[in-house]
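Ticket #4471: structure output looks truncated?

Reporter: J.K.
Steps to reproduce: submitted the chain below (502 residues) through the standard prediction queue, then opened the result file.
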Amino acid sequence: MEPGETLRRRRAGLEMAPEEFRALGRELVDRIADFLASLPQRPVTAGRSPEAIQAALGSRDGLPEQGAEPADLLRQAADLLFDHSLFNGHPRFWGYITSSAAPIGILAELLAAAVNPNVGAWTLSPMASEIEAQSVRWIAELIGYPRDCGGLLLSGGNMANFVCFLAARRAKADWDVRTAGISGGRPLRIYTSRETHTWIQKAADLAGLGTDAIRWIATDARLRMETGALRRQIQEDRAAGARPFLLVGTAGSVSTGAIDPLPELAEIAREHELWFHVDGAYGGFAAVCEDAPADLHGLDRADSIAVDPHKWLYAPLEAGCALVRDVAELHAAFSYHPPYYHFDREAAINYFDHGPQNSRGFRALKVWLALRQVGRAGYARMIADDIRLARELHRRVAAEPGLEAHTQDLSITTFRYVPPGLTSGHPDVESYLNELNTKLLTRLQQGGEAFLSNAVIEGRFLLRACIVNFRTTLADIEALPGIVVRIGGEADAALRPPGLAS
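Returned output as attached by the reporter:
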């Protein structure tokens, strides 16, 4: 057969007939539905070792020379994932700030992948670009930020914060920093609290400022930024000839959910002509609640905000969102137009002008559909329920013999196990309690009954429960103290050195 005739009749190995696609899709959706229904009865994780996971996968196998049947491959992939994963959709997953994925978001990912738009340019993704623009407006409206702001969806909090960081750098530098780089003017300085997420170090590093440009401001007893210390540091830097340019407030710290005094920070930023950015990746969405913490009322005064729909909007990973008050600042920070671009629609939004990516997936669909499914009222109820459950956990921990309650902010509660016969406070006891609670957490995470993480506050290793989970119920919360006390007792029996007592 001639080469031209072969190509005329071409059927690529990855193609699938409609009937086959329907059959495989139905089978897979059925398995996923059964999996989601089974989550409460499953362990949060199987707790298997890396070696066991690698063996189940056959990780040392070479690339197959020939292909295999899609039906067999999908069944095998589902078995591997359902039997060997940690399930952040489980009602007792309270470890890191990763939410249960909304079912409509799961279906949205399938639909988005089917169309596969490149949401970098409007011409390549006309409807997807408009859905993203509307999603950004709705997210802003949800937290009380101006609807006419600029913004875009990114992979998560790191990148959302980073986009805002770069917009601030260009806007506040005294020179053309995009052309001359950071060596073109005075040293730039950043102000943030000691509780800020590590994205700030990555941003300072990758943007060329270096982490020494960060001024770590002390926090008060509630782990909120000390505004007096902030004012003094800004004055010292100005006197030394530096250029203060960025003030970062936190709306929901990773460790405890602490919220900086955002209204006061906004005023300080205005006084000193700083760009005011709020890292609200976790806590920003709590602003939708009727009884939202008062400090969240400062969100509307920020020059930029980062929020993560894959946290408290329960979207599947990945979904972060950068909001910038003046959309022109995004364009000024990121736009380049090489000769091979030919996108000339004046009314269209081209997201390659607003962020670091040119090729961009359709992240917005899962967010947009969920916002439409439950609306503002639905999200206000779910987020408020998470907060109420965390407060109830704190109350129950405080009442449980053997547990010592610590912080409670937003939907994060911290506490630790203190076994009978020991009283906290003595240096030897404190050292042992840190070791004991570390061992307890490892056993808890591997055991699969519930999944927590940790915080370290004033040198104390604490267990940390963060509830961003619409599947969690009061019954789950009621079960946790007993689980922790039991596992803590087992760890204490194996670990406590002879003679240690209060």
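Triage note (M.O.): checked the attachment and the full token line is present. The CA atoms of residues 140 and 146 lie 6 Å apart.
Status: closed, working as intended.
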